[in-house]
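Contributing new records

If you add data, match the layout below exactly. Sequence lines come first and carry their own label; structure lines follow with theirs. Keep one chain per record. Anything else will be rejected by the validation script.
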Amino acid sequence: MTTKTELSSKKLHFALVTETFIPEINGVAMTLGKIVKHLVEDGHQVQVIRPKQSKQDIACRQQNFQEHLVTGMRIPQYPQLKLGLPAQNKLLSLWQKNLPDIVHIATEGPLGWSALQAAKKLNIPTISSFHTNFHQYSTLYGLSFLKPIIQNYLRHFHNKTLTTLAPTEKLRAELTAQGYRNVGLMARGIDTKQFHPDKRCLALRSDWGASPNDLVVIYVGRLAREKNITLVIKAFKKIQSENPSAKLVFVGEGPLEKEMKLACPEAIFSGNQRGEALAKHYASGDLFLFPSLTETYGNVVPEALASGLAVIAFDTAAAAQLITHSKNGLLIAPSDETTFITSAQQLASDTTLRSECRRYAHQKIQQLCWTSVGNTLEQNLYRLLDQHPQALKTKPNPKSTHQEMCA
């Protein structure tokens, strides 16, 4: 019989099923990319099953890492993403040839459901993670009658897995209260070398028409209704009434872009940014506004803090966890848009408070680390496998690799 010690020294065959993955630009893709990179570098064999996004999309194959592409269909208002169609037969064929130790389903669509059924037939331990509050989106898009149906489906889906991983303790408690069983924690990290105040770029600020002393208000994320993005413009208009030289920069794309350009033609729309360019955009701002109320986490909040920005956000998700009010930003009671706007104006006008928030922001975020997140996930995987009969099978250990993931 395999002992706990023997199991924890064994390298895993980990299958991830997801609608979105790097290099797509969103928090889910980024988070999953970091987790997969950690597992591959630690010597585990990782398999990613995801929808093919375009004709040019090619599956990445490297030592210890393989992608398998399935058919997908376009998502309304998200033309750059595809919803994975059911692929149970393909997954059964794939996994029967080389049975994974564990399957992680990150998204709850048709592809995820078919993966759940395939894993059940093959008796593969399965876990899931909760990344998106889809039930809240239904209200924002005029489909509130679907909200209870979506809520029931999500709970039913996740309760068929061994555990559901939430990004924060607060969400973990909320899901448990809603009837989700065995809710665990998969925290988030931040690359403080990439996102750093030293990435501030005066040349970029000059391109925005901002002098070294001008205030730059910045937002990073999708330009979409579920992000409550119009509140950024309302807050900026209030700031601009007292500080006419202030600039507003949007980093990201989305279905509301045309509408926002009409509402605020003086704003700078930088489109999607990646890597060092994204880090420069963050650090070259002064005040970060994040008005979303639908986040399960919100990776842009720690990225902004790590970049040395004063942040204003509602008291939810990552902001509630990472912001100390009046220390590295301002926390606003959820849905209190009036206070959000007046607080933005206050922080824009109070240069002393803003400077103090910016100085403390990067320090506050230092404890977050993707390596720690990855190590904790590995420990949880071994613990779950130790409790499941499927963990008793033996496999050869793959050699460790430190190759980079495909970009």
